[in-house]
Amino acid sequence: MLHDDGEYGIIACMLERAESLPEDPIALRRIIAQLHDQLGELEHEREAQETRIQQLLETIELLRRKRFGPSADRVPEKQLALFDEAELEALIGELEDQLPTTEETPSAPSTGASGAESAKRTPRRRPLPAHLPRVERIIDLPEAVKASMGDEWTFIGYDSAEQLAVIPRQCYVVVSKRAKYVPRDEDVPGAEVGVRIAPRPVQILPKSIAHGSLLAAIVTAKFVDGLPLYRQQQMFARDGIELSRQTMSSLLLQLKTPLAPLAAALKAQLCQGPVVHIDETPVQVLDEPGRENTQQSYMWVFCGGPPDAPVRWFEYAPSRAAEVPRQVLFPDSEHGPPGTDPPRRRLYVQSDGYSAYHALAGALGMIDLCGCWSHYPASRFIRSQCSAAVA
């Protein structure tokens, strides 16, 4: 039963088109193929229109927020909590004081208020380190008070209390004056030399304005304390010293050559322990010779060495290939001709499930490749591969 004239018109149109269809099957297939292509084009056009509509809606929402939203960025509440460190540490100290003493001598249980108070832990101030120098400050009664006391009062000693003090960082200039000598006359032996001057003092960076102590301070602040060079520049500026980031960067780069023996010693000590941990992370280096700025490089981090003298070794490489960790741990220079004994080092290597570490399984001096708890399924596969490689 037809509900309105619109439905009747559609059905009538369909019946009219059905009567005009050819009876040839080949012609019918051709018409169906054309209709299928038209439907595909319409569907593609519909998806493009929906995508364009969604983009326009997002643009409208962005403009609306920019026009009617708050003009200043709001700081997240959790970020402000970073400044509550002092209050948080004080609260932790109060809670620790309420904990029972771990080492208590057994005694009979006491009752009453005095017993409850004695059960509480009495906070005790830890003594300051004995190796720190002491500066005594004598505090006495005013002279007028002592004069009024007369001879009826006797001095018996001092009541001592210690406080930890800090001397702010002091920058000073080392002036090296080299003595110069000239002969009295031309007949003095060696007068042909002219002026004799004392040799220059040994410096880690010759002819540099940076003393060894300054270089040590910059290196320690950046690589140990994680203090960027621009912050160090601000700290020097507060002391009235102009020491730019570019100057400090140049000093750090110049340290590569004089510190090469120290780096070699650290790298040799890396494999002196039984275990080495390895991981790699992508880095991007700008203006690197022979490489585009968009190319990705990798920083390989090795943690090993003896337990009492751990070593952290950072190895930069332009690739993530397995050859990088193999050359660091088992370099070809340590392997002699065929038939010679392998190096004495015997290592367990722990890493994630990255396939590049599987190549270490057959290296000379390798005991086993271990996975971390986060990659336990991968570690089981790695161990099976190591066993197969050793066999």
Give an overview in words:
This protein is an alpha/beta fold and 391 residues long. Among the domains are: 207-258; 266-390, Nucleotidyltransferase, domain 5. The protein is 40% helix and 10% strand. The chain has twelve helices and seven strands. The chain has helices spanning 5-20, 25-68, 77-80, 85-97, 112-119, 143-149, 212-224, 229-238, 245-254, 260-270, 323-329, 376-390, and strands spanning 180-181, 196-197, 275-283, 297-304, 311-317, 347-351, 366-371. The strands form two sheets. Strands 5-4-3-6-7 form a five-stranded mixed β-sheet. Strands 1-2 form a two-stranded antiparallel sheet. β4 and β5 form a beta hairpin. It starts with a helix and ends with a helix. The model is unreliable at 104-109 and 376-391 (pLDDT under 50).
